[in-house]
Amino acid sequence: MQIYEYKIPMPDIGYNANAYLIKHKNKKSILVDAGPNSPQALDALEATLKKAEVGWDNIEHILVTHGHYDHFGFVAQIAERSGALVWVHPADRNKLTSALKNPFFIDPEAAIPFLEELGIQRTKIAGLINEVVTLEGGTKPLPESSIRSLSQGAVLNLSGLTIIHTPGHTPGSCCFQLVENGAVFTGDTLLPEIIPNPIFDLEGEERDLSLVRLQESMTKIRLLRASKAYPGHGKPILSIDSAIDRQFTHMAKRSEQVLGILGVYGLSTFSVTNKLFPSDGGRYHTWLALSVTLGHLGWLRVRNCVRTRRNAGIVYWEAQ
Ligand SMILES: [Zn+2]
Ligand SMILES: [Zn+2]
After folding, report:
1. What is the pTM of this model?
2. In terms of CB atoms within 10 Å, which end of the chain has fewer, N or C?
3. Rounded to whole angstroms, how far apart are CA atoms 30 and 11?
4. How many A from CA of 18 to the centre of ligand 2?
């Protein structure tokens, strides 16, 4: 077995997405993620296939770490050309089968009541949704028939990979551990330089628990005792424990900061977000900033450090 790491440039965002080709002895190959739907993703894959001396027909499975366009956007084209089966966790499946125009949610209308609950004024909601729904290119929806479901603990026999469900960054995020050498593919759940964002999902009841789930998932990764992690962005991680420690330290500081902002007053999630991130940092900033804030508020709620109060449809957070 051989692993070929390749990078897909995303010039509009200014960083790369990683994808991986795992080639087995008989040339049968598996891809872990595929990058966004872009000419760069095609170029990078073709160069990798050439280097690995495998053909499109040799790609048998595509494993998707999670339902964000920078990881699965190009999967439909590869599946169509190679006949490969696509594997994704059921919680992120809808993101692959709908023609996704934004990286975070399927139905913009469905976001409105929840955004109001976060304390965003009705007049600002349309602007915020527009900010998110402007992803260039979009993605091609995958037909249901080419998708298979990943389940926790299963070993995909053909690929020699164990599936670990690691929700938090998205509800269906998964890591894959190679049976042969213990290395683990971590998607955006464990990254070398960036702190993964606990992006909230509009589906389900656990909207403020993304950070709690993300930390549980990092603990799961730690327990794998892997010697190497292949992340969704950046270089391979050789010291997994210290990468996880760094993230926990950063997150603990952030939670303290959120608690400090709350003081004795009740504040909406949006008000806390504006105090936590006072400068407007660019595209998708607000959505990501809201996710970080809500994640920390939920983390503090689970620890009984804050409580919520509802008034006129808005949720207010208070320190306790
Ligand atoms: Zn992601
Ligand atoms: Zn990503």
Report:
1. 0.93
2. C
3. 26
4. 8
